[in-house]
Amino acid sequence: MATRWRTGRVFLAGDAAHTMPPYLGQSACSGIRDATNLAWKLHHVLGGLSPDALLDTYESERRPHVTALTHAAIGLGKVANTHDAEAAAARDAAFLAGKVPPPPPFPPLRDGVLRQGTDAPVGTLTPQGRIRLPDGRSGRLDDLTGYGFTLVAAEDPTAALGPERLARLERLGCAVVALDTVADLDGRHGEYLRQLGAVAYLARPDFVLFGVAADSTDLGALVDDLDAALSGTPAGVAV
What we know:
With 239 residues, the protein is α+β, with helices and mostly antiparallel strands. Helix content is 42%, strand content 12%. The protein is built from seven helices and nine strands. It has helices at residues 27-46, 56-80, 85-96, 141-145, 158-171, 188-196, 216-231, and strands at 6-7, 10-11, 130-132, 138-140, 150-153, 175-178, 183-184, 200-203, 209-213. The strands form three sheets. Strands 6-5-8-9 form a four-stranded mixed sheet, with helices on both faces. Strands 4-3-7 form a three-stranded antiparallel sheet. β3 (130-132) and β4 form a beta hairpin. Mean pLDDT is 93; it is low at 235-239.
């Protein structure tokens, strides 16, 4: 793994930043995650929406994540490449008997552009399901809303957010999806909200959960926290 992934305007990603054994099939996947993480942050910085410091969160988010997967791949490699005949036989018997422990959970992002201080599973991936818009178009959520931030709410959040916060979301390129006006064809987004115990969730362009709103009064704070995280302004300070 490279000592650092950024020097000024130069960034490392994929195998240039980190290599891993092939046993989990996660090497190219990790490179794609790197590129997706860095791409939306470059978009915001180059578009004047965020300060240059946002780009430092690329490494602080991705390094621990890919480190965990690399260690998991190394561990699986040791299992797959057992050369001792007795150990291999015991391994095979354990697999056949269904006595192998489950793999560790997929690592979430722990730091960076995330709404901290809540019990929500921030840093994990949000669901992808099919929706139908009021104009009749249907398809996967991101195909219809675009590849930016997405606020998915159980009910229309317009009144709870107000014009100023809605304008901020528009400035950030955030799509707003209200499940009381959009058909949740697979039921995945509504079920996800029920699992979260929330009225809304906010997904990043790389499909990572930024945060949730526990109730309608928390919706405004959720948007404020996103704006603060992207602008480098402490939460609660007007921007």
